[in-house]
Design a protein that fits this description.
By secondary structure, the protein is of the alpha/beta class. It folds into 2 domains: about 5-115, Rossmann fold (3-Layer(aba) Sandwich); about 130-194, Arc Repressor Mutant, subunit A. The protein is built from 9 helices and 4 strands. The chain has helices at about 15-25, 45-50, 65, 70-80, 95, 105-130, 150-160, 165-175, 180-194, and strands spanning about 5-10, 35-40, 55-60, 85-90. It has a 4-stranded parallel beta sheet with strand order 2-1-3-4, sandwiched between helices. It is globular. The N and C termini lie far apart (about 40 Å). About 30% of the residues are buried.
């Protein structure tokens, strides 16, 4: 098993790097290689995904780093997790167990946490892409009611909400208003209640 760390160079870069180093020392594991990308550039992520094998681990300081991925990069990551790549986020203890397990049963349980995490986020993505509430609304006269929905922004907000980000974190990361975040959150709740 190889452990690949992924770290975008954004405002949380230094903190994320420190957390990765501290955790590897505390839990006594070695990071095989660290991949770092400039913001909005995913070249290193693509290179990493080309190297990984089933059973390897993608390690990130926060799940938000993955939740911010554009749709195509998310699909590429999802394909790799379906093939057996395990995702460990240092801020989600259910995924962190993967680095501390040795038995087959424990590894199966930890593998299930990756599947559940990815499936949950995938369901939110699918819902946002297919839900008519996110389509452009029309008035009775047929004119557009307000601005069209920014599907890409809503997609990123939903991923961050599912990952547990606060409104303030989302506002800072995506430069959007609290009312937009609330609308996305309400749509997710409506979806869960259907």
């Amino acid at each position: 098993m190889k452990i690949y760390a992924y770290l975008p160079k954004n405002e949380e870069y230094e903190q994320g790097k420190n957390v990765l180093v501290a955790t590897s020392e505390t839990l006594n594991f070695n990071i095989t290689q660290t991949f770092e990308d400039e913001e909005h550039d995913f070249t290193s992520l693509r290179q990493m995904l080309a190297l990984v094998q089933p059973g390897d681990v993608l390690l990130v300081p926060k799940i938000l780093f993955l939740a911010r991925l554009p749709k195509q990069e998310w699909r590429n990551l999802r394909n790799m997790t379906d093939a057996g790549l395990n995702v460990v986020s240092l801020n989600l203890t259910t995924t962190l167990r993967w680095l501390q397990t040795s038995g087959t049963a424990e590894k199966l349980a930890s593998r299930a946490s990756t599947d559940t995490l990815m499936e949950t986020i995938e369901n939110v993505i699918s819902y946002i892409q297919n839900n008519p509430k996110f389509a452009k609304r029309k008035t009775v006269s047929g004119s557009a009611a307000g601005r069209p929905v920014n599907e890409s922004l809503h997609h990123r907000i939903s991923l961050m909400l599912v990952a547990g980000a606060s409104y303030s974190e989302i506002q800072k990361a995506l430069n959007c208003g609290r009312s937009t975040i609330s609308r996305v959150k309400q749509t997710i709740k409506d979806y869960k209640n259907e």
